[in-house]
Design brief:
The complex is a heterooctamer, with two copies of chain A (249 residues), two copies of chain B (68 residues), two copies of chain C (361 residues) and two copies of chain D (184 residues). By secondary structure, chain A is an alpha/beta fold. In chain A, 38% of the residues lie in helices and 19% in strands. In chain A, strands 3-2-4-5-9-8-10 form a seven-stranded mixed beta sheet, with helices on both faces. A two-stranded antiparallel sheet of chain A has the order 6-7. In chain A, a hairpin with a 5-residue loop joins strand 6 and strand 7. The radius of gyration of chain A is 17 Å and the shape is globular. Chain B has 68 residues and is of the alpha+beta class. Chain B is 15% helix and 21% strand. Chain B has two helices and four strands. In chain B, strands 1-4 form a two-stranded antiparallel sheet. A two-stranded antiparallel sheet of chain B has the order 2-3. By secondary structure, chain C is of the alpha/beta class. In chain C, 42% of the residues lie in helices and 19% in strands. Chain C is built from 13 helices and 15 strands. In chain C, helix 1 packs parallel to helix 7 and helix 11 packs across helix 12. Helix content of chain D is 39%, strand content 21%. A six-stranded mixed beta sheet of chain D has the order 2-3-1-4-5-6, sandwiched between helices. Chain D is globular, with a radius of gyration of 15 Å. Classes of the chains: A alpha/beta (249), B alpha+beta (68), C alpha/beta (361), D alpha/beta (184). Chains C and E meet through helix 4, helix 5, helix 6, helix 9 and helix 12 of C and helix 4, helix 5, helix 6, helix 9 and helix 12 of E. Strand 9 of chain E pairs parallel with strand 3 of chain F, so a sheet runs across the interface. The structure holds thiamine diphosphate (2 copies) and iron/sulfur cluster (4 copies).
Chain lengths: 249, 68, 361, 184, 361, 249, 184, 68
């Protein structure tokens, strides 16, 4: 019998604490596969955020550090500047990266730090129980926008990829999702591209993944994945906003 | 040796694999796992083409797929 | 004398950091410490080091967290308001037991205050301005020479105890120039710390991990008491162990009727006061904590048995005086004299206070 | 050579652009070269912006307790506001060297010896008002003779940035002129 | 009983803030206090108030700084790591003498720690985690009822003393439900504070200004001593003045051989312990500081003359115990028992400690 | 005799502490003139930053508050939400707004707070003695980039107006300068537009002004003003990046 | 009606989705309505994610010192892991009510009275497994009779969100069935 | 009454006004002001057209301009 699919090396065997159907698990796997395929495992250092993926370090067989909420890009900068030969990536949610961590991600990107950022945009704060994120859609009801997000009071969802693509330094900025097998393959490619670029010393790479939070959206996974297509993608268009080195070409 | 192997301790019964299986050969088992979930089970292994779409869709990497 | 150079305290500290093997500085400008980053901005590239001006103090302290986790000798510096912003990061670094140097060149507060010298961040530095039970090792130089000496010591202590070390200085010490003799450079190897992220020595077992989250109550409590034990050990090392010399400086305390206590720049003024007192027949002594945490409580308690009273002088409304009182335990009176907002008390006015105490009427 | 009272506490003050901090540095280097203990403390902060600058230098036989000078033995005043601000603080029997080009002569304090040095003019004659501070340094050496002029000029050399060779001669002459003027 | 409602501590605090006339909340989510903002997100719009989730704790505390400067009753809340991030802002607010309410629902630290209840931010709250000489008024409720009562008091105290007030709570008090009786609503008028930015009453003289920078050394020193005087005044008000009731709670201390000291949730457990002690013939008493700053040192000193010893119990490695020692001045032994990381000591183990002390062998 | 020009009402008579030739003074005057002309003086509240303009409150006859470094937009938000009837503006330097204050300005802009921001971009930290700012030009020597800013280490100058114009909410985003009489008139118009929009409740308005720092640039004012044309404008193009309500039309 | 030992300390535990916290709330409300002192303390935090949930309720004649329950008088176990985790902590002579639909019968502890209630099945029969928690609440009232069934049902009414009227009847029947089953 | 009035206590001698004057009628005075600057002075009031460009360019609002 030939093995068609099994767990990648860099992904630990620990069961995750994620809710049933949560996309975090699948994206962890794609990151681990990319690292394995590029042979980077032994020199990769991951930076976990504060968010549901705070325990990401439990799920990867890699050197890892857990950063303070929002500061992963600064932590990654410190690591990369002290260990330039290592491959450094951050894995951050939208509260972590687009709210409290805004300054750190913008400036790491603007400096063109040679790191990779995997940005999990599920339009909500998961770990703390479903509060509004800067990425929450207008009208969406959350624990802190019980009447639905009102643009006149709190503005519109913030588009990090577009904003980061305004900066000169970033090498690669792309937005993908995992709500279908096809989309998932694309995301795999994007994440692998990002690490490839870092490996080649090409600078800052940023992959935004539109994800579901079945628990706090109050929707079963399948329905949630459809909701991504119907509601999130229209606001957060998929696509590549920067590809300095034509790696997708 | 079976084509399709599931680790019931990892499966959280989210049902994603079932929905993604093109051959519709996966279903929900009625027993509860130790964690309190109804794990996915193989209904008809003959029809399974080992495409591994289920495995690749599983957030918990609970499925392994083999081909004869 | 040939090797004496006239340098600013901020610069002497910076150059010594380089000599100590520090090759990475992350910080954000703020008066009165900006000469420190400015010096390193020039110097570090000369030794293949990295000077990086962060977007904020918060980014800087988190870069330190990441850098220290690799095993490198890293440092940041700031002044009062900037140090307040670092408190969450400092708590993380202490929790993760990462060695690093944090410099606070204190200025007048609270709020924006002013940029003149002050000592009103003592509580923040020694009791923990951040959340949770943790301690920094806090060193308080009183000359440009000590800005240098203590920097070398700071990196040693940080690595020895796997703990962040703070040098608590002030605007005067940072800005003034004095002749200084710099130490010999040390060879530091990042890979000497096998726990460092990215360490790839053949002897590496499994992966290296750095985290401060302990979701299970049992684990966090275990970690808290582990840290507590470590802090006790550091206390002993400074009280009676191999770090004793760094703990305290004394002058004429043995027979003193009144012991003047002050740290940093104040201790130098107190020395003059003690001399003047002795000249005028007042048996005064000087007690100068060189290390503010762990505080030399043991010695203070001993002296409390011998002297008639203490006069604590600070450039604050009274902070270190609490640690003196804790050690004295009411055995003799503890008086306080403070000036704030950047005013540096003159020997005259302190002498005056002494008179009020020993020659009331 | 020894310092008269074993310790010389100096304050020098002037406008932002008058190089008061460098003047202080010259004094400190000279003192250090003479084997004395020295300290140098600048005013820093908002005074930078536009306003005035001042700096305290202590040169002493014994170790220096505090670099802060409340009552100077010697005041070097580069402009009028500095006289107003610091002259009252000068010790009885102390000395003030003042920039007579900007400060009109008058009877300042009966208990303080006032030395008029037209530093800006002397400097101007040398081709650059900017070295008025060095002129004053020369005058200082006269008031506080910690070493010979020759030795002092060595320090000037060592203090002038290598790439600013053209400055060197200018500084040396300025220093000498100040020294000689104060002599006269 | 009719008007008793079953509520979470976090919710009772939030609802009382609304009843106290607070119409503006600025904060950032963090466990274990998120029910508080979530409650207000629903409630404030119902009363034309504004609930705004800030982009971070730092933004939140600075929104508070701006909001409080207008004279409005404003509040923010967070938990340990988030409160560390607010330290610079808190120092500014204290320096500017702006009234506001800051809530810390403490969790386990240092670093990310965990989300279980803890009391390890005592130093930060009472000694000043921020830079400079300043103080917060710090209240420590021990029930859902007090989460409500003290919130009303907090806004009054803040306005009375023009000082930020902190409610220092913990995960248990925030999360637990108990029956609570809510207070009557008060009418608060933003224009009652004529110093407020944007105040436009006919009696306004010149313009209103709010700043914390005092570049001249003299001015900053003057401001520092002004604050110092105010803090002394607040001390007196709580020690003997009209705020006395909020200072302390006592049980059977008069004849006690051992006085148990604890604040917040711990004080309730200690009450059981005291009862059990008395049953078993041990003369124990309970001393519970309800206000942590100003600390009820005077009363502690009095009791130190009467009792044989103190046992301080905290969910920390020992922080408030320092304030007890400062007040006791070595007159009698002060023992400490602590659990950390989220462990709440049981009455059994505390009883055990008492035994060790009073019945050694 | 008829008065052609004199000091505007809202500008106090205090002499400023700014260096000779510094643009801060001129821009203060333009702000004061705009407020006076729109009759907003008695309900305007200014927010001073930490930077050379930390004492701005000394120079305006308006209610004023001095914010912590970088936090002016958050402070302004607090004020505006508590006093919606007031006119609130922040006046911030590039260290204050583009470095430490990145998150606060981005999110105030994204929420569409109805405030006005005057952003003084002089490509350097003035108050602290000429350190590098995120806006410092590549190759420019500063106290913390003594060898000139190296894009490969610290990236390129950050363009705040362009980045803020990526967001949906802002009503008005423009970049101007004051290095010639003509440019100065344009800036006056821009600042007045910004306040007009706030007065009309149209939301967030942002005016970036390219300024000189003769002291830390080490250039006399006239030369510095020319340097703006020759070196800054090519990197920070002048123009209006957002004008939702066609106020310039 | 009074509580046997003056105080009833209860722990209830189960899987995330089993509504354990609501179950606790019912107990507390019932206790409060009966004029007792009550406290309710949830487990919070990571247990939210996927895992298990538990909650402590104290119902007492006297004021409650601490809401923390270390040794419960009564355990309501909704699933097997909860038995493993909490049964050992139950006081000697205490009671465990367990969800017999998910927990196979066995001899648990000789010194603890075990009441089997097939809550999930009963709830399923009523049309929704989700009300298994309310069934257990009914059973609890039997074990700790602080008020009559009628009075208790009033609390259910008051606890069920007004807009969820359809839920109301279901909840009432579920509560009653649990009460009756425990009776049998 | 003059067309052109300068407040020497405000003037910092930055020279901007001098450079911006289209009629080139402004110059540097040789005396030092109290603050230590060489203030700007009017060289030829006749030629001044009261365009006030100098005043509008002055960072320190040191100049007032009148027209007959
Ligand atoms: C300084 C600080 N503030 C707030 C928190 C609380 N907190 C933890 S995770 C989180 C946000 C989680 O949301 P997101 O980043 O979107 O990640 P997700 O959980 O959705 O994957 C917050 C606010 C914290 N731990 N530290
Ligand atoms: C928290 C904090 N960090 C740093 C400083 C020091 N500081 C004061 S102003 C300033 C930057 C000034 O530059 P900019 O914002 O560009 O304004 P400018 O002075 O150029 O007008 C800095 C870093 C401070 N006061 N507070
Ligand atoms: S809360 Fe949302 S993001 Fe977090 S693990 Fe559950 S589903 Fe995933
Ligand atoms: S996708 Fe994975 S976890 Fe979900 S049901 Fe299928 S096997 Fe189980
Ligand atoms: S330092 Fe620069 S910005 Fe600051 S006042 Fe002087 S010229 Fe203006
Ligand atoms: S522009 Fe103003 S400050 Fe500058 S020289 Fe002219 S009058 Fe003086």
């Amino acid at each position: 019998m030939q093995k068609i699919f099994s767990r990648p090396q860099s992904l630990s065997a620990n069961p995750t604490h994620y809710c049933p159907g949560c996309d975090h698990g699948v994206i962890h796997r794609l990151v681990a596969e990319s690292i394995d395929e590029l042979g980077l495992a032994e020199r990769t250092i991951g930076v976990a955020p504060v968010g549901c993926s705070v325990f990401a370090y439990e799920y990867f067989n890699l050197d890892f550090i857990s950063a303070a909420h929002g500061r992963a890009p600064a932590v990654a900068t410190g690591i990369k500047r002290c260990r330039p030969d290592s491959i450094v990536f951050t894995y951050q949610g939208d509260g972590d990266l687009a709210a409290i961590g805004t300054a750190e991600i913008i400036h790491a990107a603007n400096r063109g730090e040679n790191i990779t950022v995997v940005f999990i945009n599920n339009a909500i704060y998961g770990m703390t129980g479903g509060q509004m994120a800067p990425t929450t859609l207008v009208g969406m009801k959350t624990a802190t926008s019980p009447y639905g997000r009102d643009a006149s009071l709190t503005g519109n969802p913030i588009k990090m990829s577009e904003m980061i693509a305004c900066l000169d330094a970033p090498a690669y900025v792309t937005r993908v999702t995992v709500n279908t097998p096809a989309a998932l393959m694309k995301t795999k490619k994007a994440i692998k591209n990002a690490f490839q670029l870092q490996k080649d010393g090409k600078g800052f790479s940023f992959v935004e993944v539109l994800c579901i939070c079945p628990t706090n959206w109050g929707k079963p996974p399948a329905e949630a994945h459809k909701w991504v297509t119907d509601n999130m993608i229209p606001v957060f268009p998929l696509g590549t906003f920067r590809d300095k080195h034509k790696i997708e070409a | 040796m079976p084509k399709w192997v599931i680790n019931e301790d990892l499966c959280k019964g989210c049902g994603i694999c079932i929905g993604r299986c093109p051959m519709k050969v996966l279903g929900v088992s009625d027993h509860l796992s130790a964690k309190g979930y109804h794990p996915t089970k193989m209904l008809n292994e003959e029809k399974c083409t080992s495409c591994a779409l289920c495995a690749r869709s599983c957030p918990d990497v609970a499925i392994e797929v083999y081909k004869a | 004398m040939a090797d004496k150079i006239l340098m600013k305290g901020n610069e002497a500290l910076a150059e010594t950091a380089v000599l100590a093997g520090c090759r990475h500085y992350f910080g954000y400008p703020i008066t009165p410490q900006s000469e420190l980053p400015e010096y390193l901005a020039k110097r570090l590239p000369e030794v293949e080091g990295v000077f990086l001006q962060a977007e904020s103090e918060i980014a800087a302290i988190n870069m330190i967290y990441g850098g220290a986790a690799t095993g490198a000798r890293v440092m940041t510096s700031s002044s009062s308001p900037g140090v307040s912003l670092k408190q969450e990061g400092i708590s993380y670094i202490a929790a993760a037991e990462l060695p690093c140097l944090i410099v606070n060149v204190m200025r007048g507060g609270p709020g924006l205050g002013n940029i003149s010298p002050a000592q009103s961040d003592y509580f923040q530095a020694t009791k923990g301005g951040g959340h949770g039970d943790y301690h920094l090792i806090v060193l308080a130089p009183n000359s440009v020479q000590e800005m240098s000496d203590m920097t070398m010591k700071a990196f040693e202590a940080a690595d020895t105890f796997k703990n962040p070390v703070m040098i608590l200085s002030d605007g005067v010490l940072g800005q003034m120039m004095e002749p200084v003799v710099l130490p010999e450079p040390v060879n530091f190897d990042i890979n000497s710390k096998k726990w460092g992220l990215g360490y790839r020595g053949a002897d590496k077992k499994g992966r290296n991990l750095c985290t401060t989250i302990f979701m299970d109550v049992e684990h966090l409590e275990e970690h808290n008491w582990h840290l507590y034990q470590k802090y006790q050990f550091i206390r002993d090392e400074f009280e009676k162990g191999s770090w004793k010399d760094l703990s305290i400086e004394e002058h004429e305390c043995e027979d003193a009727d009144i012991i003047l206590v002050g740290y940093g720049i104040i201790s130098r003024i107190l020395k003059t006061v003690v001399e003047k007192c002795r000249k005028r027949g007042i048996k005064a002594g000087l007690l100068r904590p060189k290390t503010l945490w762990p505080f030399p409580s043991g010695r203070v308690a001993e002296l409390a048995k011998k002297t008639k009273q203490f006069l604590v002088v600070e450039m604050s409304c009274g902070q270190m005086v609490e640690d003196i009182k804790l050690a004295v335990e009411g055995k003799v009176p503890v008086y306080f004299f403070g000036r704030t907002g950047g005013t540096i008390p003159s020997d005259f006015e302190i002498l005056n206070e002494v008179d009020k105490i020993v020659r009331p009427d | 050579m020894n310092i008269p009272q074993g310790k010389e506490e100096v304050i020098m003050a002037g406008f932002g652009g008058q190089g008061v901090l460098f003047l202080g540095k010259v004094l400190a280097e000279v003192g250090m070269a003479a084997g004395k203990n020295v300290s140098w403390l600048p005013s820093y902060g908002p005074e930078m912006r536009g306003g005035t600058a001042n700096c305290s230098v202590v040169i002493s036989e014994a170790p220096i307790a505090s670099p802060i000078v409340n009552e100077p033995d010697l005041l070097i005043a580069m402009n009028r506001p500095s006289v107003t601000r610091f002259l009252p603080k000068v010790k009885k029997g102390g000395v003030m060297i003042y920039n007579a080009s900007l400060i009109p002569e008058e009877t300042f304090r009966s208990d303080v010896k006032a030395m008029a040095v037209p530093a800006s003019r002397i400097a101007g004659d040398l081709g650059s008002e900017r070295v008025a501070n060095v002129v004053m340094a020369g005058a200082f050496l006269r008031a506080c003779p910690v070493m010979s002029l020759e030795q002092a000029l060595k320090q000037i050399e060592h203090l002038t940035p290598a790439k600013k060779k053209e400055m060197l001669e200018l500084n040396k002459t300025a220093f000498t002129k100040g020294y000689e003027y104060a002599n006269a």
